[in-house]
Write a structure and sequence with these properties.
alpha/beta; Rossmann fold; 2 domains; 11 helices
Amino acid sequence: MIELKNVTKKFDDFTALDNVSLTIEKGTAYGLLGSNGAGKSTILRLLSGIYIQDSGEVTIDGQKVYDNTDIKKQVFFINDETVQFSSFTLKTLKDYYKNFYPNFSEKIFEELRSKINLPLNKKIGDFSKGMKRQAIVIIALACCTEYLLMDEAFDGLDPTMRIIIKQMIIDAMIDRKLTTIISSHNLKEINEVCDTACLIHKGNVVFSRDLDSLKSNIHKVQLVFPPDEYGNPTVYNREQLEETGLEILHYEKVQSVCYIIVKGDIESINIAFAVKNPVVMDIIPLTLEEIFIYELEVLGYESNGITEYNK
């Protein structure tokens, strides 16, 4: 299990992380979502032992990470840059990492390499961007660590390359319960790969949620109520609808139709609003982007920039 407890990290007068606490269970596919500069990469560098926190605790399986070689043997960090591998061939890069990771599997390495036919003796600096990323992912998975950390792993790759790399990672997660932490500013990437996501904003954790439970517990509802005795449309205001006991995150009215965003499962929503005798009640699933927007609004954060996560 990974834990950050009240972690602060500063660079001169810039606070990259401000009293951050996170718990990431083993076997989780965990997404760190946030804009550039939010603090995602800093978290990954703390977990891989590159940085040491200014205050708080960073532990993996109950042990402190920084300067701990036993823990580092169980963690592989894929940086968003590959320039440091330019002078290596895939073979020499493999041999280099075998020195540091005792569980390195030649079998897994060759299976993955042959699947996409990457050349062994060509310099990685001469690879395309997608091939470079494939190469380091193959090395990472062959190291057979318990934890894989990826910083903007799919950024700039064409759709075919994204699919290939994602499938490699997903297969490893299924086969050996690999704990994977992926940072991204792209909401679609997180939604496709991860089962839990954390939204980070200016060095602070906005929220951390299981995505399945998040999607099943917030809905958009359209309501139309029967007219009053004079034939005029009946429209309840937000306060009147909140009398049902449900938590309403957003309310708007267009003529006789009420549009609301409400927390709760479908059954509880149906029961709660039935007492108002609506003539129309449509419960519509929300996209993950919409859920994040309304969650941010409730928490008082500016949500206008959320659309950049969906590019």
